[in-house]
Every structure is written in C-alpha cells, then in structure tokens.
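Duplicate of #3305? Posting structure anyway:
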C-alpha cells in the first residue's frame, strides 16, 4: 500500500476550490489504501475470521495478481469503503466473533466478483442473509430458497458467474423476479460520465435520511432524465468542475424524499465518492448539490492524507448554514463545500443561459463563506498545512468578491448572515462579538 503525500502546491490547488482531475484521482487512490489498511487490520486482529473468509482473501490476492486494475476498481467503490468503515467500528467495540463473521461474509461476494473481473476461475462458499445477497458492482440476487440464511456456492468460470447454480446476467438491463441489476446514470460529454445509482447495497444507508428502497423503472427514468439535463449545465458552465466530477463522483445513493418542495443531500465519511440525495427540484439545484457534496469528499480524502487541524479541538464556531456550533474540522468542511457552491452559482449568474435565482443565490452563499472563513483565519487549531490551506481559501473567497451583484441583493445577504449570527449567539447565551 502506497504512502500518500500532499505537496504545498497540491494544497494550494485544492484551496482554490478546485484541484483538477489528476489531483482528485490521487486523493481517491489514498482512500483505496485506507480501505485496504482497514481490511488488513480486521483480518489480522479482529475475531470471527473463518476458513471460507481466508479462502476468499486468497482469491482476492490471486485476482489482484492477475489484474490489479480490475480489483482496484472494486476497492475504489464507495460501498467497499462503507463496508470497511463498518468493520472498523465493529471491532473497536469488543464485539462477539459471530457479529464480525457476519460482516466478514461480504468478503466472499467481493472475492468472487474480483475473480470475475480479473478473468480467473474460483469456487467459494459464502452465506446468504435474509434470502438475498448483493454482488458488488453487479446487482442483487434473490434466491429460490425457503431458508433466509445459510451457505451459498459462488463460481467464477470465465466469462460467466454463478450463484447456487444460477448464472448472473451479464448486463445491467437484464431484470427478473430474482435479479435486480445495479443501474447507472449516464450523460454525454465532454466529459461523458457514467455513475452507478445504488438502491440495493446494504451498506448504502450511512446518511441522516433513510436510503430509498429499489427505484421503480419510471422513478429511475426520471433520475436519468434529470441527471442528464443537470450534467449539461455543469459541463457548459463549470467545465473544470465537470472534469473533477467525472473522476470523483463514483456513486449516487437515492434517499427517501420527506419534502416535495425541497431536497436534502449528504456524504459519508467512509464512502468518499458517493453522494446520498433525494431528487433536487431543479437542474441548477442538482448541479450545485453535486459540487457541494464532492467538495466534501475531496476535503475528506485530503485530510486523511494531510491533517489540516486538531481533530479533537474543542473550540466551536458560527456557520451561517447551521444552527449548531461547529468545530474547526466541520467549519473547514462547510467553507470548502460552500466555496464550490458559490463558484457554481457565480458561473450560472454570469453565464448566458439565464438562471433567475442565480444572482440571489450567489450573493447569499458568498456572504456565508465570507462570514465563516473569519473564524478559520483566527483559529489556533490549524496545522501549518491547515494555515496555508485557509490562506488559500481566503484568496479564493476574495476573488468571488470581485463579481458585481445588485447592491440590494448584497445588503439582503449581509443582513441575513448578521441576523443568523445574532440568533446563534443568543441560543448560546453570548453577548456581542463573533
């Protein structure tokens, strides 16, 4: 596993709000190393490892030796990260070996899919839970069996893949009562993009809103239409961000929609590259949401390589987009995400396509990041790398200030932030000041 570093030049690029596809790809390779380190830790020190799990590990190693890129692509999926994170949290709590074994059962489908991707033969025995199992990157299989759990035989024999004698369909368009393929959203470019929309994986529910159950065909088709329309906006108005998104956006997890007039979104610390969201109400909102959440993924991956602040720091600060006080690490995440949002609204505002809400949205988000970065500038919890990063953020935010917006919108945005600050301080029992 590679030791990853971020140079001063890398930090400066990221602090601009962008970074470029090559640097973003490097950040995500760092996540690959992190996930493999977690798996090794669990295998070496966690309880519950069975002979079937060890055989699966041997198949993974053989597949990696035959086709490293194929197996790396499997580890790079955000759901592998979610699974690895769940394993790590589980063994940290002195669990029963049977609980760890149950989580480790996912090794077997991962291994057989790795063998399939690498083009090698393998036979493995795994276990089914609740009458169904997920083959990562492929789909979900419901077995013809009355038992809800028990042993299952997996066979990779190129070019096919079998589970308990049933051949797994080779395309994501094949559906049956027993097979639900992992579907993908697609949009032409440049850059063209294909993003899995995961409504099947058991590790997809790591958000503050419940994950959606399997999307119906009409619902999926609506997602596809809205995504394709949104991608054209991103590619036209913020092409450099489109280049980053084409590298970083690895999965979309549809969430239940609790409010028909608004949309919510989230990222998971373990599933870098995945976005959980319910369908936004407009293409412009969809575009800014994609940018917002991938900014979080970029910064999480960067801070795994180069810490920017004291993660255990106790100081808490005002953030205009939250009612609760934020630690420095959370404030960094918020400023970075909303810097990307402000830049996107700026492009929509200054572009020629006409987005009526863009001027007001740009003024509001710009005022938010200006107010929030003040606390970061004064913080004594930043590392030297974090100090350099925040200095770069300040320059990027100042650059947004050079864009002219109607004075009435600027005043309204500043008044809005000031009112939020006063309300925040009153909730905390504080007087004036910041």
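Output from current build:
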């Amino acid at each position: 596993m590679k030791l990853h570093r971020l140079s001063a030049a890398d930090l400066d690029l990221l602090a601009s709000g962008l970074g470029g596809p090559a640097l973003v790809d490097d950040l995500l390779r760092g996540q690959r190393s992190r996930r493999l380190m977690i798996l090794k830790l669990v295998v070496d020190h966690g309880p519950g490892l069975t002979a079937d799990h060890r055989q699966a590990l041997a198949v993974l190693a053989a597949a990696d030796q035959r086709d490293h890129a194929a197996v790396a692509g499997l580890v790079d999926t955000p759901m592998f990260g979610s699974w690895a994170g769940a394993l790590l949290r589980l063994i940290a709590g002195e669990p029963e070996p049977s609980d760890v074994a149950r989580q480790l059962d996912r090794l077997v489908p991962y291994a057989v899919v790795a063998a399939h991707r690498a083009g090698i033969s393998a036979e493995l025995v795994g276990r089914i839970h609740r009458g169904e199992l997920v083959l990562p990157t492929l789909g979900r299989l419901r077995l013809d069996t009355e038992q809800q759990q028990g042993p299952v035989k997996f066979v990779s024999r190129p070019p096919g893949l079998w589970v308990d004698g049933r051949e797994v369909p080779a395309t994501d368009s094949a559906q049956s009562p027993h097979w639900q393929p992992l579907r993908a959203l697609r949009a032409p470019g440049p850059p063209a993009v294909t993003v899995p929309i995961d409504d099947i994986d058991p590790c997809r529910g790591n958000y503050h809103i419940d994950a959606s159950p399997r999307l119906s065909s009409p619902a999926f088709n609506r997602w596809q239409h809205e995504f394709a329309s949104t991608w054209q906006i991103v590619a036209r108005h913020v092409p450099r961000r489109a280049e980053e998104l084409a590298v970083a956006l690895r999965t979309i997890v549809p969430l239940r929609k609790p409010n028909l007039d608004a949309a919510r979104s989230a990222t998971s610390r373990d599933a870098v590259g995945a976005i959980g969201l319910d369908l936004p109400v407009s293409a412009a909102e969809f575009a800014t949401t994609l940018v917002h959440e991938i900014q979080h993924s970029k910064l999480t991956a960067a801070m795994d390589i180069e810490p920017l602040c004291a993660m255990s720091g106790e100081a808490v600060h005002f953030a205009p987009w939250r009612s609760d006080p934020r630690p420095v690490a959370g404030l960094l995440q918020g400023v970075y995400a909303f810097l990307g949002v402000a830049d996107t609204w700026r492009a929509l505002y200054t572009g020629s396509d006409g987005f009526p809400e863009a001027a007001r949205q740009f003024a509001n988000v710009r005022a938010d990041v200006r107010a929030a970065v003040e606390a970061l500038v004064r913080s004594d919890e930043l590392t030297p790398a974090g100090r350099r990063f925040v200095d770069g953020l300040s320059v990027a935010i100042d650059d947004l200030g050079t864009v002219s917006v109607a004075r009435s919108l600027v005043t309204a945005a500043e008044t809005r932030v000031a009112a939020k600050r006063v309300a925040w301080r009153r909730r905390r029992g504080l007087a004036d000041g910041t």
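Confirmed duplicate; merging threads. The first strand starts at residue 122 and ends at 129. The CA atoms of residues 43 and 54 lie 9 Å apart.
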